[in-house]
Structures are given as C-alpha cells and as structure tokens.
Structures
1.
Amino acid sequence: MTEQDLIAACRAGRREAFDELVSRYYDRIYRLAYAMAGSQAARDLAQETFVAAVKAFSNFRGDSQISTWLISILRNQCSLHRRSERKWNMAPLDGENDRVSAPKPREIETGIRTILDRLKDLPEELRMTLVLFYIEGLKYLEIAQAMGCPVGTVRSRLFQARERLRASVADPET
C-alpha cells in the first residue's frame, strides 16, 4: 500500500488501514517518545499519538508525509504529558527502595548513558531537533514540517543543541 493509498484508506475509516499505519510507524514514534520522555512514558505516549491521529485523520491535508505529521502529534502529546506531570506529584510505592540494584553497566554504556542523561536536560525544542536529525535521520525540511517552524530555525536549534550538549558533557558539574 502506498502512502497515498494509506491516507485515503485511513480517511475512509478502514480498520486495516489504521493497523497498517501503526505497523509502519510505531517503532519510530516509540523511539522518539523514549528519547523525549523516557522509558516510563514512551509506550503511553506512542499509543496516545496513534489514538490522536485516528481522531484527527480527517484533518490531515497531506501537505507533509504521514511520519512528520505523526511526529508533530507526538510533540503535542509530550507537551501534554509534561504539563500533567507538573500537576500530579506521585507518592512513592511502599518497598520501592528495597529492590536489588542492577549490575554495573559496561564503560561504553556509561558514556552513552551520560550523553542521554544530558540530552534530557536540554529544552524540548532543542532535544527534539537533535533526536530527529541524529537518531531518526530526518532532513532539515522534514524536521521543519514536523516541528512547524522554518528550516533556518531547525538549523539554529540544531547548532544550539550540539553546543549545549557538548558543553554539558565536557563539564560534568553542570
């Protein structure tokens, strides 16, 4: 099924088309959700993205690729998630600190974890731009479409994100 066929079938409300949509794009959306919000929220955010897409498919104009449209929906879902996190403070579960600690990761994993931890400290726009460019391999124009901004802004955000990440990794005290 081509992307145009998929769009037409989804607009027509065909269940198998929505199944195909999820099949094609779930992994990408999940990876982005994981990079944006962490492992705890990634599955829920991916699922909420597809639910929102199903509800809004009649509004999809087809000006961009489905993948960039889904990424923009994910961005909105991440924003909603962050707002709700600020509203609700979760109480710790009894016995939560009684767990056995995980084995110490290998040295290379420690370096990657450090970078990923520092990535989470970046503002959302910078983090999303960096993830879309380096992890998802999107081009500037695709990122601009997904984020709803000009290509120049994508370039600027990418530069800022790299500089902040570089400084953050170089200076572990920040």
Note: The chain has two domains: 1-86, 106-174.
2.
Amino acid sequence: MELTKEEEAALDGKQGETLAMAYRILVAIGKATGADKLIPVEWAHLSGVNYNTIGDAGEQFLSHLSQDAKFKIKTTVNPMGFDSDSVSRFGLDEEFIQKQQSIRKSYEKMGAIPSFSCIPYEIFEMPKGGTQVSFAESNAAIYANSVSSLKTNKESAFSALASALTGKSPHSDLREEENRKPKLTIRMKAEPADELAYGLLGYFAGKVADSSVAISGSKGLDRRSCKSLCAGMGTSGSCGMFTLGEGEGEKVDFDRKELASVRDELNTAESGDIITLGSPQLGLEEISDLASRLKGRSFRKRCMIFCPRAIQGQMRDLGYTKELTRAGGEILYDCCTCLTPLVDKEDVDSVITNSVKGAYYLRTSNGVGVSLKSLKQIVEEETA
C-alpha cells in the first residue's frame, strides 16, 4: 500500500499510540483486501455498542481508549442493550447496566453522536451519492450502497472505529467501482408480498451471493421493502449491496419453494409468548403504519416496539405514542430486538416477530423459538 507522509508518521507512532493502532488496523485490512491506498471517509457508523456483543474486554478497551482519543469525522453508533428510561422495569443485572453505561460514556467522550440506532439512513440526512463512508452495521452498509449510492464496505467494529479515529479507510472491495458490478442475478419468480418475504429474499441472497448481487423481476421496491431486504442480506452472508435488474454472469431463481425453505430454516415455533417489532428499528413510516393498523385494537400479548430515540418527539406529536401505548405496546428507544438482554429464555420460550434478522439472533443468541409473521398477520392474529 502507498501511504502519504502523514499516514506513515501516524503509523510510526509520531501522533500517539491511539492513531498508530488505528492505522495498523487499516493497513492490515488494506493489505488483506488488496487496497492500493487509504482514502478519506466522511462518516463512520459504529457497531460494538451493546455490552452483550463486546463484553468486559471491549468495555475496558473503550474506557482506556476514550482517555485521549477523539473521533475525526461524523460518528454515529448502533443500539445498546436497553432503554435507560425503562431499564428499571426489566430486572437486569446491575453489572450489565453499569458496563453498558460505561460503553455509552466512552463513545460520547470520544465525540460520537449518541444515536443508538441501526437505521442511520432514516434519522440523518444522507450525503450525496458517491460519498465514501464507513458503516459497520450490516443493514445500514447495504442500504447505503444499494439505495443511497454511497460507498462503504461491510465494516467490522474495529475497522469502522479505526475510520472514525483517522478519517480514512482502505480503498478496496466495494469502494472500487468494478467490484460493485454484480456477477450473480437472482431472478424473482414471484414478487414478495410483504416485508417478511423481502427479508427472506435478502437472507437467501446473502447466502448465495458474493460482494454484490442483482435482483430481477421486481416492479420496484419501496423503502420498507429495501430495508427488510438489506437486513436479511446482512444477516446471512458477506454480500454488501444489491442492484435491481438483470446482471451479468450466473442466474439463480427465487420462487415460492425457495421462500418456503428459508422460512422453514428460521421459523421454529407455531406461536410465541411475546411479540417483538424492530430489527432493524422501526422508523417513523413503519410506526405510522402500525398505529393506523391498531385503531380500536389491542395486543393480546406483550409487544415490545424498538425505535430510534431521534423520532420520539415526532411520534408523540403525531399521536403515535398514545395509540401504541393504548394498544398495549411497550415503546423502547436506544436498543433493538437483536442481542437484547430484555428477552430472556428463562422467561420466554418463543417470540413472534416480522423480522428475519431478529429471528436469526433471537434463536442463535437468546436461545428462544421464533414464529415469523408479517406485520399484517401479527395485527390480525395477535390483537383483538
């Protein structure tokens, strides 16, 4: 890799050990991925926020790092493990709460915007197309590449953190135009009917595609369909973007048989004890739809609704908060269905959700069964 004199000096430790460490991470990744140089990025979105994902070692590392480190570019962060406003209701271990708050303080001390959201593309203004960013959240990285025309790889927690500290990232993989051209096309033989079906399509695509995939047979995807597609794709593999239309190279069909096969893999229960909505977190459009569907109806089971705090005021002003709570919904901010300690297998055997990503992590990380239903099904079958 060719480095500038400034980058070489930072790598050699002349600007402190923190920057030297960050540049070592970027150079190692760059060499492994065939990058010829480091390039500037304008925005980093970090994972590694939930204590459940990084543990004691991560918490201690961030605490030490935050003593003198400062982020050089706009930096936002993924959800943490709980909503501070309601954490007392859940009986969480006090050590978990303290460790999670320590992680939060470390990121804020380094200059992160306390977004605690996995959908930065819905709560922040997106930069112009072609802008280089560094997104560690998988659904956000795929959405940025595929819908917002930004350029990012599916970054790791460490690579995105290094980008936040340096403002740089290796010029490789999906940052190069040639690698963004799909070499595989998934031909949809039946248009997915709802957000769940698009999530299942994404999960299938993530399994069969490499870095980029073309999807043909669609009449056009709205934002919510894209969001579900991105979340499913980011869960099952390394694919970092999709395009619509016929691509070059191999063709693979996705029909009702394939859809049923993917659903059977993730759907492990006929019903559930509770309902979780929000993986990725629900944005204002989805909240509006849910509130309108619930008019005059109430959940017959506990329903946890995960949202970014950035939309809290709008939800309240538009009357959505009142309607959701009237229907028995619990609105939770700053956290998400995935890897949450708020769903405990000692209290819950199975969960109903419309999220493919949520289904995967509830099963593999929380150890509970999952009943997959579309939002329409959930309202029809689980409310009265």
Note: The domain at 267-382 is CATH 3.30.499.10 (Aconitase; domain 3).
3.
Amino acid sequence: MLQTADGEKHLKALLDYDTRSIVRELKGRGVKIIGIACSYVPEESILGSGMFPWRVSGTQTLPVSRASLYRSPDISLSYTHLLEAILLGELDFLDGIILTDRDDDMRRLYDVVYDLKKFNLTYMMHVPYANHAICVDEFARSLKRLIETLEDFAEAKIDTMKLGHTIQTCNESRRLLRRVYELRKREWTPLNGTEVMKLVRLSMHMPKNDFNGRLESLLPYLEARRAPLKSNRPRLLVSSDELDDLKYFEMIESEGAAIVMDDLDHGSRYLWEDVNPDEEPFRALAKRFLTLPDYARQSTWKRQVERVINWVKEFRVDGVIQLLEPRSLPRAFRSPYLEMRLKKEGIPAVTFTRQYPLGFVEQLRTRVGAFVEMLSASSNNPEVGNGFNDKGRRHRFGEGNS
C-alpha cells in the first residue's frame, strides 16, 4: 500500500496528467485518433481497429463568433462550443469524428462538420430511442455499419477476438471507476467532485491499460483518504448533460457542500454498466449502450428518474441540483417530470440553468449557496422540512433561472 505522502503524490500526478502528451506520442507512432462526440459511441469499436478514441469537448473560450456563423443562437450551447473548438483548430489532431443522431441539434452539427471537411472521416451513427429487443437488434446493425466504416478507414480488420479483448479492457476501466464511486458512499468521501470528474475524463483520454494500472494502484490509498472539502455535509447529487467544465463542481463545493454522486454523461452514465463479455459482441455492445443510465432523449423517463432516486438513497444524498443547459430540449422536456418525482419522494431538489463554460458565476453561486444553507438548516432542524413549503411550492431560491 502506498504511504500517505507517496499516495498523494501519485494521485496528484494522475489528476494533473498532460493528456496532450498522449496525442503527441500517438501521432508520432502513426496512430489515428478518432473523436467521440456522443456517449452512445462505444470506445471498444475504435480501439478494436487499432485507432484511439478521444471524447471531445467544446472550447471554453468566449465569444463563439465563428460557430455563430453556422448555428442559431437558440440551440445547444455545448454543440456550438464544440463547433467553435473545431473552427479554432483545437481539435486538429483528430483524424476523424463520430457523431450520432441523438437529437436534431447534433444532426445539424453533423451537417456543418461534414460540409466543412475538417476531418478525413466524419460519421453519424444511428441510435434508437428505446431499448426494446427490436431496438437492440437495430442498434447492433448500426454498430456493425460503424465498424465496417472504421475498418475501411483504418485499413484493418476488426474481428470478434479483437472486439472481445477491448470489451474486457473497457469493462476493467468501468469496474475500477465504480470502486471509486463506491468509496463516495462513506461519511467523508475520499475524492471531491472535481477530482472524480478529472478521473472519469482521464479514462476517456488515456490508454486504457495505463489508466487501469495507475488507478488500481491508487485504490488502497483512496480507501483511507479524506477529500479536501470545506464540509462533508450536505451531500449532493448533480444532474446534467454535456457538463464538462470542472469549475461548476469547484463552485458548488466551495459553498460548503460535498458532491458525492452525479447523473452525468461525463460521469456515472459513462461507467455504470459493463458489456457482457460472454455474448456476441455487437449485441452485447448494443444492450449495454441502450440500457445504461439514459440520456433524456430516450423513451425510458420513468426508469431514468428511478435510477436517480435509487442513487439518492444509496449515496445518502441530502439534495439534488439539476443544471439545465437551457437549449438542451430533451432534458428541458423531461425536467418537470424529474422535479415532480423527486418532490413526491420528499427529496429536496432545485433546477438552475447554466451556460456551457461557467457563466453568471455570482448569480449561480448565490442560488447554490441558498440551497446548501437550506439543506444544512434542515439537517439541524427537522421542522425546516425538505425544501418545500406547506403548499408544496418550491422555496423562492429554486424557482427562477440563473
């Protein structure tokens, strides 16, 4: 087991890892790098071809003047910032990019990226809207079409043995990350929200075997570590989509709370389920990626919200913060249902709108701080209640937009 000083040193080295050095090393060896723009694209399919998957993010710079020439101001900010990153050259190291028909907005992004011809490969993958057996079969066929395209692009055959090996490697990454998440159930979590999100992001940008080995060696140290937090209470769950700006987590925890669980595609939804290694690979991948904790565009709203409620219980969460990107229509449509179900369960919850990079900081900080203060008061005084008044209306700090 690593000693405390050595453990902290190794943890810091991993969290501060320069992932762009990986890009330079891979490009130097002639390895093609394929950008993934959607959590429904299996990394296994790219790894099996000998290429390297890279989960893309949008630029954190403002304004997005270049992307605004191609996109309306009233559509998804995350996709607009991704297009700006492409136009700024921040993703020029990519040889190709894979998008999906997850929603109309991403389809329109595909149209622009394809027309610009910035990459040697621009591909859109079909994702069904449900997880019935017929949808699993259709998604398996969609994955086969993707792999055929990747085979042509990589000039390499992706056989079932290669695919099975990459499935096992990716499952190991998920298993190790879930062990980290299990440790967050403790009274004092070993990692704060920012550190956990960094780990998940690293697993999307590092060679899997390297990441797996480093994280596994750190787990004994994490068993005894206490996260650098102002307070271990209240315990929060953060829910959002395409939330990859770590400043949001830093801001929330600076108000005296601990993020112990998340409902994020760059977090729990990336790692929560394994691919069955004993099943035919295409069908196994299709099942896993259609039954993972879902994005709001899927037709499984009831199951999605039940999963959040179960996480609240398992991780002893005191309150839920939903950060709504206002132009993300699937989540905007589902948001009232999520709020209704949480209220019915007596779970304190608030919804705040957000920008893509952290913006309107002081307004958002004030609202988060008020919610944290209410939860703290509630834990010390049962008469305060669960965040709702006697008529069932949300307290004022939870009503408006930030």
Note: The chain has two domains: 18-156, 231-398.
4.
Amino acid sequence: MSRPLVGIFLLLALACGSLGETLWAQSHGLDARQAAAVIDARYNGMKSLRAEFTESYSGGGIRRVENGILWIKKPGKMRWEYTSPQKKTFVTDGSIAWFYVPGERQARRTPLKSLNDLRSPLRYLLGRTKLEKELRGLSLASDVRPEMAGDVVLRGVPVGMEDRVSMLLLESDGRGFLRRIVMQELDGSTTEFRMENQTENVAVSDGEFSFRPPAGVEVLQGNQLEP
C-alpha cells in the first residue's frame, strides 16, 4: 500500500435493484455522475466490509506485489492486514492511523486527517459521501478498457492529493463494487489495488481497529505511513 510500501461511493437511488444493474450493464448509456452514484449507493448502504486485496507498485525500477485482507467498519474504521510476502498492518480507528511491521522496533502513527498516503483516497468508503466530491474532473474513462466485460471505469484526481497523484482510475462491476483502483503519481509511479470476494456487513469488533505498540517499540510521528 505504498510507495514502495496506502480504500469510495444520481443523485437518485439508481443503484437499487434491477434497474441500477441494468443501467450499469448498458454502461454506454450512463454518464459519470450516474456511474459514480451506483458506487455511492453500494458503499454508503453498508455498515462493514471484508475484502481480499492485491496491491501492486511499479516505479523507479521497482516492482512489488503484496496481498492481504481489508476490513472496513463505519464510521471511520479501516484495517489493512498484509499477509504476503511480508506481514504488516495499517489500521485506523477513525482518528489515528498506524503502520507496523511485526518484529520491527518502530511503529508509525499519524492523525488520519493529515495522512498523506495512497490509501487516503479510500477513506470515503468509511462514511457517507459522494464520489463526485472526492474526485476533481470526474469523468468516464472511455479510453480505458475494463478488465471485465460490463464494468465501468471512472477517472479523476483525489481532492487534496493533486500535488502527488496525477490520475485515479476506478473500475466497478454491475453491483457497484469497486474491483480495481489504479493511482498514477506525478513521479511516474503507479499503485494498483484489486479487491475480490467482497462481503458486506460482516461481524467485526471495534477492537480490530485499535493498535497498541508492543513493549519496546518506538513510536514515530509523521504524515506518511510508509516503511
């Protein structure tokens, strides 16, 4: 989730029921606002989420692929549990964000509101908001071929990250679930998140989103949680 180390959601209830899915399947008939509203309705309507993720980074001659499990619980809680190739944790209780690699002597901590991290564009999954407000220049990426037939791809720049991210692509399926998120940075690097097996409203305790540094671990402050 990182560089080389970082998850979004009509204005009417277009996303509900068969009408929303039919319109989505006929994606050439949707404009960017309607497509975004389908995603809004999906994520705004859930209380929690579990998903498997793959994060890929390329840039500066480096190529890195990581896998893990993402948990989200509203309001404001998120946990990225990396399982391979190295175990590490990014977690926030809605106020403070932590990054920790088991066995290391340091843990990194920052207020969520000041976090400058590639996971930041995913924060709007944690509340109730509109994708249209989170991305500047929101538009259909008609020049980008979706990886799955019937998906829609949107393009924009995350608000507040214009000095770092040049473009964000979101690919969503017919139910409004985000399947793929691609972030291109101004320095030419690219970070891509893929999410699979997303399950809504799973039971997860608040304790999963709290973190206490192990004994002997130094706490570092900063606005980037990268190793």
Note: Confidence is low (pLDDT under 50) at residues 1-28.
